[in-house]
Write a structure and sequence with these properties.
The protein is about 30% helix and about 30% strand. The chain contains five helices and nine strands, in the order βββαααβββαβαββ. The chain has about 200 residues and is of the alpha+beta class. A six-stranded antiparallel sheet has the order 1-2-3-4-5-6, with helices on both faces. A three-stranded antiparallel sheet has the order 7-9-8, with helices on one face.
């Protein structure tokens, strides 16, 4: 990676530099903060599957999420196809180095192909400051500039006003309303060629 890009690998930790935040690959020390965030009602209302026991979160973090990040980043560094690999990054506030949320990209099987999605969440204490939009734009730029991804999708429940705003501010175009597990979502896409 070139030194003039906002994407860096320092001490084997991948980061994307955004305006007020840094996107950073998950590390084991994120466990407590990550678990605390998934326990916030403002987050698990919209992402109930993320609210699990601390032991379950530790298992996922250490045995799946961190290793898969390494696989994803290795594939990118080799110029290989990322396929169905996920990239999961913490949102770190530059000013305090605090873990305040996450922004991830993976395959959403319920969506029509191509179905690479961006999903995110941020602490209730840091909403409305533009940090989530910075994170989503940082992830979009990274994927479009460093992988073979041509189309990215995003979903938001109809009543999730904040998430719908972030998606629109990030350049996604509304496609339609889709139903997944009896819940209705606004379905958006962003095409590399027309962004």
């Amino acid at each position: 990676m070139e030194n003039d890009t906002p994407f860096t690998l320092q001490e084997n930790i991948f980061t994307i530099d955004c305006e007020d935040i840094i996107l950073r690959e998950f590390i084991v020390n994120d466990l407590d903060d990550f678990h605390s965030l998934t326990s916030q009602p403002e987050i698990y209302k919209y992402l109930p599957d993320w609210n699990v026991s601390k032991q379950q979160r530790k298992d996922w973090l250490t045995n799946y999420e961190i290793p898969e990040n390494k696989q994803f980043l290795h594939a990118v560094s080799q110029g290989s196809d990322i396929g169905v690999l996920c990239l999961r990054l913490g949102i770190i506030l530059k000013e305090t180095q605090e873990f305040i949320g996450w922004c991830c990209s993976g395959i959403k099987e319920e969506l029509p192909l191509p179905n690479r999605e961006i999903i995110y969440a941020i602490s209730k204490d840091y909403r409305g400051k533009g940090y989530t939009t910075q994170a989503v734009k940082g992830m979009i730029n990274y994927l479009f500039e460093n992988t073979n991804v041509e189309i990215i999708s995003s979903l938001a429940l109809l009543d999730n006003i904040s998430s719908n705003k972030v998606i629109k501010k990030s350049g996604f175009i509304f496609q339609n309303i889709i139903k997944i597990d009896d819940k209705e979502y606004n379905y958006y896409q962003l095409h590399k060629k027309i962004r």
